Amino acid sequence: MRWVLPEDRIPTAWFNVTPHLPAPLQPPLHPVTREPIGPDDLAPLFPMALIGQEVTTDPWVDIPGEVLDVLRSWRPTPLVRAERLERALGTPARIYYKDESVSPAGSHKPNTAVPQAFYNRGEGTARLATETGAGQWGSALAYSCALFGLECKVYMVRASFEQKPYRRVMIETWGASVEPSPVDDPASPGSLGAAISDAVRDVVTHERSHYALGSVLNHVLLHQTVIGLEAKEQLQLAGERLPDIIIGCCGGGSNLGGISLPFVPDAGVELLAVEPTACPTLTKAPFDYDFGDTAGLTPLLAMYTLGHDFMPSSIHAGGLRYHGAAPIISNLVQHGRMRAVAYPQLKVFDAAVQFARTQGTIPAPETAHAIRAVIDEALAAKESGEEKVILFSYSGHGLLDLGAYDDYLHGRMTDA
Amino acid sequence: MRWVLPEDRIPTAWFNVTPHLPAPLQPPLHPVTREPIGPDDLAPLFPMALIGQEVTTDPWVDIPGEVLDVLRSWRPTPLVRAERLERALGTPARIYYKDESVSPAGSHKPNTAVPQAFYNRGEGTARLATETGAGQWGSALAYSCALFGLECKVYMVRASFEQKPYRRVMIETWGASVEPSPVDDPASPGSLGAAISDAVRDVVTHERSHYALGSVLNHVLLHQTVIGLEAKEQLQLAGERLPDIIIGCCGGGSNLGGISLPFVPDAGVELLAVEPTACPTLTKAPFDYDFGDTAGLTPLLAMYTLGHDFMPSSIHAGGLRYHGAAPIISNLVQHGRMRAVAYPQLKVFDAAVQFARTQGTIPAPETAHAIRAVIDEALAAKESGEEKVILFSYSGHGLLDLGAYDDYLHGRMTDA
Questions:
Q1: In chain A, how long is the greatest CA-to-CA distance?
Q2: Within a domain: B77
Q3: Looking at residue A406, what is its pLDDT?
Q4: Where residue B416 falls among pLDDT bands split at 50, 70, 90?
Q5: Strands B127-132 and B209-211: what pairing?
């Protein structure tokens, strides 16, 4: 079963979780002075509208009409009940997923790429530079820049640039240019942190250029809350009150934040972050101030971090290879409102293929992390006989990650 | 703007165009005796339910509930107005497309793969074999076999097998096996006709095996009429009476038939088939009886045909590399109810990239043939000042064809 909301039921305001957090967020610090930063410190990187959204405590933020016009090309996205998977597992759990793979770029990323391109164009930006891991974010920004008439430059983590050539072509088809990162070390597989450094260096040396980040920051998670807001309404249509547990994969934290933040005020709704054991930020790392990028060019953020020079192995879930986690997600985990679990790659792909052969669609390797946890929760519910309601974010499709499936199906994949 | 019908407005019967054709269809002939064939001649290849649908003159054929349950995973598909493309062209034409790319396999092909798997399972088939060109059909059948618990073997045209490795992986992810065709000539780029021969040879030498065809035959086009039936209802929602012209790309003719056949009885609705100049079946070939496959194993069909041994060049639109055209489509063209046009590859990709950069989604090379004709019709309407209503079939996405875009964007594509 699918629940599709009509076009006019798209949310018209983003949900701001800040007033609902268990404790106040700690301010970002200047990379040199280590004093709390102000709007002027961020102005070389972002338009003022986004800087304002980064610190706002307003409970709701209106979505501009021109942004809604673009989001309506694929939103509201379907809420789907995974009945074939439920039957294959023999679980009494009811499993629902929010299908964010239906966007033009194939993931949740355009939810924030579109407003970021919109606000930048509104303040006279001519060109955006960014990093990308698996390419989901880079393709989303390239798509958005094509619609708003902005130039776009994408620094792509070298491991993904080589593993996923089709993502590079997708970005180029929308008119953006792509360069493997780190630009100064062709032998390195790269990391999201290093690619951020490349993109930040780019914008400070180009006219009318701004930087765009696809995750981690408050305004990015804010834009993604359309996912959870729609899901809440669709669950009612499906006859459910609230989910018992919400599950999302976590790299920087944007899709996880998108589906779960609107449920933070709802006591009794359990929130679960899923990450790779190869990059165990929330499950193994300390909570500390750290840079968002490898070179130490960005402000210091209060978050769980493996260290800004951490270099994860080249797992296929390139979008989860980030040393930190969004301050909002870190805050929720630190204060016990969210928990986290980590899985190795092979168990993740077992789940991905089981999903493809029952539900019929092929998930992105990142999304497959969430699916692994969903299956384990559903099997635990079978054990306990509990009619649990599970909601997860189907954050993206795996059609440009089929090289990873090829490795898995032919025994060439390892857990490393 | 998008018009999405609720799940319960999915068509519950297929539309049979046979009673509405300008002249009766000529019967298929036995490959050896050249006498009209009967049901028993087809029984080694197809289940009786499909053989019945091949010859029925009933105006409507009920869709089984179990088939509807699966089709509802993605149907009804959206009808989209291509407003950004209209603006970029400055045309007074209103352009609508039916988005068949939202299916799990990414094209219209599952519309018939699902009922074919269903009817085969119902009659005790354990295994299906088929051919595939670009891989759209092979992946659709692999998906459907996974859902109905059938084994699946796909003979993939070698040119596509090499150009589009991700389609092979997709098919394998759903549990089917793939072999490049022709199996006995590794130096040949292959053709759909040769791959049909391989698949037919396979099923006659395997137990409880049947053959499944993704286009050409009457029952295949019948299953695809859900496209046009939904579009008719959605156009009313959009405030249009009927389209002035309907455009679809044509290989064997199934997506073109799907969108256009329900409009055959509507006088004044122009129907346009678009094919590649590299395989100009409807625009250059004679109408004659010919085999559906290279080796001459299938019945003889009355159709436009370039000859069953015709070997088209390795263009990227692998799904359009077929020597014949569906008897129903051929009948409509022969009697003037449909016209046809052919385009070379580079002009087709010009249109594809213009579409991607305005509408935001990347079409399959096959679909891009329709888009080329749509743009030319819209520009002609601009010239004449006519507020023409154009409807086309967005038959599939190009996410597994990005190698073709890579060639185009980097000047490596030719018209050959």
A1: 61
A2: yes
A3: 96
A4: low
A5: parallel
Query: What is the identity of the amino acid at A186?
Result: P
Closest residue of A to B177, CA-based?
A409
The whole-angstrom distance between residue B374's C-alpha and the CA centroid of its chain comes to 18
Buried b (16+ CB within 10 A) or exposed e, A64-102: eeebbebbebbbbbbbbbbebbbebbebebbbbbbbbbb
Burial class (CB within 10 angstroms; exposed 0-12, middle 13-18, buried 19+) of A372: buried
The pTM assigned to this predicted structure is: 0.96
User: Using CA atoms in the order A341, A347, A351, A357, what is the torsion angle rounded to 10 degrees?
Assistant: 170
Q: Would the CB atoms of B174 and A361 count as touching at under 8 Å?
A: no
pLDDT at B311: 87
What tokens does A287 get?
């909570």
Q: Tokens representing A100?
A: 């964010």
Tell me the pLDDT band of A372, cut-offs 50, 70 and 90: very high
Q: Is B357 on the interface with A (CB under 8 A)?
A: yes
Residue of A nearest to B356 (CA): A174
Q: Is residue A236 situated within a structural domain? A: yes
Q: What is the CATH number of the domain that holds B288?
A: 3.40.50.1100
Q: Which of A169, A175, A360 faces B104 most closely, judged by CB atoms?
A: A360
- State the residue for tokens 């349950």: B69
Q: Domain range for residue A320? A: 67-107+219-409
Q: In 3-state terms, what secondary structure has residue A22?
A: coil
Closest among B255, B318, B324, B341 to B290, alpha carbons compared: B324
CB contact under 8 A, A406 and B165: yes
Residue A357 to residue B165, Cβ atoms within 8 A: no
Cβ-Cβ contacts under 8 Å for B204 (sequence gap 6 or more): B44
β-strands A60-62, A151-157 pairing = unpaired
Mean pLDDT check: name the lowest of B56-65, B138-147, B186-195: B186-195
Give the other-Cβ count within 10 Å of A383's Cβ: 9
- Judged by CB atoms closer than 8 Å, whether chains meet at B362 and A102 is answered as no
Over residues B161-165, the mean pLDDT reads 86
User: Average pLDDT, whole number, for chain B?
Assistant: 96
pLDDT of residue A416: 67
Indicate the number of domains in chain A: 1
- Position A292 in a domain: yes
Residue in B79, B145, B166 to test binding to A, most A beta-carbons within 10 Å: B166
Q: Does A355 touch chain B (CB under 8 A)?
A: no
Domain presence at residue B277: yes
